[in-house]
Amino acid sequence: MDKRKVVFLDVDGTLVDYRNNIPDSARDAIRAARRNGHLFLMSTGRSKAEVYPELWEIGLDGLIGGNGSYVEFQDTVVLEQTMTEQQCRAVVSWLRNRDLEFFLECNAGLFGSPGFQEVAQPTVRQYARTKGNTHADDLTVRDVFPDMILGADLVRSDVNKISFVLNTFQDHTDATQAFPDLKTGTWGGRGSSALFGDLGVANISKAFAIERLLEHVGADPAESIGVGDAAVDIPMLQICGVGVAMGNGSDDIKAVADHITDDVEEDGLANAFRHLGLID
User: How confident is the model at residue 129 (pLDDT cuts 50, 70, 90)?
Assistant: First the structure.
């Protein structure tokens, strides 16, 4: 590949392994590819508040956060769409009425409901266990969400999305029916596990955000590469010129990928970059 590529990387299960570590091979490969002139952005469900310094220290050109609700390129905010305060209030009230613990995902921080730290602990451990974390039974919510703020006002106007602990999958189904003006999803664990539900801005996707970013930098979608591991990444792979699925990815994303690389813990990113000619 001779032309400059714009590469969009999912974070969990793609750039970060199931123990929340960045493989050395991935870090080295990104830096080598950037020296070759290619651009790299994270494209993740995380809000900016969850993008910790060790990720930025790799050397990255920007961020698509909140599954597409926020776009930042080289310190310039390209796009930011949030739930309205009225929508936030309605969701918080609905979750409280169902006794579901939750947290607000904002660029300013993560804001948890009063009982989230206690109630979510078994779910957080299950999440880590399904990702192969051998120390899952020792994890606390604070380990996974170290900067989460508890006890703050939970009605805000800067919310990218709201995640909540699923007691059953019916909670997600009911949320979809209760909030047709919002986008609903699930996440958690390896592959397609559903441990958490989420509600976010309607008509937002990683593909939508990628289109805005490519317009901003003047790049052709044909010269972009998307790499991910889960169903939420499928629109990203489809909008990019080349779509790459991680070896640890779910079957549905592998079905639409142009290339399937190795597991995140088996140098999957570095091997994909070599296959695509981004590095030697």
Answer: confident
**Which pair of tokens denotes residue 185?**
């999803």
**pTM, rounded to two decimals:** 0.88
Dump strand ranges (E) for the chain. 6-9, 39-43, 62-65, 70-73, 76-80, 102-106, 109-112, 149-150, 159-165, 182-187, 196-201, 224-228, 242-245, 259-260
Domain count of the chain? 2
Is 108 part of any domain? yes
Strand partners for 70: 65, 80
Rounded to the nearest integer, the mean pLDDT of the chain is 94
Residues 163-202 have pLDDT tens digits of 999 999 999 999 999 999 999 998 876 555 689 999 999 9
70 and 177 both lie in a single domain:
no
- Return the closest-CA partner of residue 272 out of 235, 243, 249: 243
Tokens 């199931």 sit on residue: 18
CB 92 within 8 A of CB 155: yes
How many Cα atoms occupy the beta-carbon half-sphere of 19 within 13 Å?
9
The answer to whether 132 and 168 are in contact (CB under 8 A) is no
Relative to beta strand 62-65, strand 39-43 is: parallel
Nearest alpha-carbon partner for 45 in 105, 85, 124: 105
119 and 252 part of one domain:
no
- Which residue in 26, 24, 68 sits closest to 46, CA to CA? 68
Q: CA 244 to CA 66: how far, in whole Å?
A: 21
In whole angstroms, what is the distance from residue 277 CA to residue 21 CA? 25
Number of Cβ within 10 Å of residue 140's Cβ equals: 13
User: Residue 256 sits in which domain range?
Assistant: 6-81+205-275
